[in-house]
């Protein structure tokens, strides 16, 4: 029983490590583009969608888990930070993170 708990715990930690790495990548990317990076406060961060590369289509397949190699994941982040006038604002941003080298390949501010 103890071995099973250890294995389950290890699997959980390994499966969560990609998301934590993506969260850090997105946070670092955003902070490098903020007016006042020291004022940054994350409110929420969550995955929205996945794109899978099937190898048979020219375009990757969206949201077909297990359809092939994971291409990228779309994340959304809500955060607070100071704007150019120094006022704290609540904002939302979306990120597309490449899963091969864990880099932000596209981003955009949400209204």
Briefly note the structural class of the backbone: alpha+beta
Rg estimate, integer Å: 17 Å
| Uncertain residue segments | 5-17, 60-64
Overall form: globular
**H/E topology pattern:** HEEEEE
- Domain tally: 1
First and last CA, distance: 49 Å
Helix percentage range: 25-40%
- Largest sheet geometry: 5 strands, antiparallel
Approximately how much beta-strand content do the residues carry? over 45%
Number of strands: 5
How would the blueprint of this fold be written?
Layout: H1 2-31, E1 36-53, E2 61-62, E3 69-82, E4 88-98, E5 103-110
Antiparallel strand pairs: 1-2, 1-3, 3-4, 4-5
Keywords:
alpha+beta, 1 helix, about 110 residues
Short description:
This protein is of the alpha+beta class and about 110 residues long. It has one helix at about 1-30, and strands at about 35-55, 60, 70-80, 90-100, 105-110.
Characterization of the model:
By secondary structure, this protein is α+β, with helices and mostly antiparallel strands. The model is unreliable at 5-17 and 60-64 (pLDDT under 50). The protein has one helix at residues 2-31, and strands spanning 36-53, 61-62, 69-82, 88-98, 103-110. The protein starts with a helix and ends with a strand. The chain has a five-stranded antiparallel beta sheet with strand order 2-1-3-4-5. It is built from one helix and five strands. The protein has one domain (2-110).
């Amino acid at each position: 029983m103890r071995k099973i708990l250890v294995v389950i715990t290890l699997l959980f930690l390994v499966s969560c490590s990609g998301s934590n790495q993506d969260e850090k990548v997105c946070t670092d990317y955003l902070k490098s583009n903020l007016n006042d990076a020291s004022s940054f406060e994350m409110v929420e961060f969550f995955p929205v969608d996945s794109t899978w590369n099937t190898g048979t289509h020219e375009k990757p397949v969206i949201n077909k888990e297990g359809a092939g190699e994971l291409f990228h994941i779309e994340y959304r982040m809500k955060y607070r930070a100071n704007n150019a006038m120094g006022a704290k604002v609540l904002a939302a941003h979306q990120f597309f993170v490449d899963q091969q080298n864990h880099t932000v390949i596209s981003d955009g501010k949400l209204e």
